[in-house]
Fold:
Amino acid sequence: MDLYNEISKVAYELYDKSGKAEGRDVDNWFEAERIVIARYGKQEKLEAESSSSLKKKKASKRSIKKLKQKQDHE
Structure:
């Protein structure tokens, strides 16, 4: 979903939750922007943490493999 459509959807949800109160369209839009941006920020953080965790696991596996090879040669 593109960013505009996502913000629009969230803004409508806010409008609907408010009992369809008129005159709050700009407020709902700005609040929707904050919500969507926060979601993307959390998603990017999780992806970065996941990537970092995967790199650590790979590095750990390489270290274990090297230790086993070293033990085998001794």
Summary: Helices lie at 3-17, 25-73. Residues 25-73 form the longest helix (49 residues). The mean pLDDT is 83. The chain is about 85% helix and 0% strand.
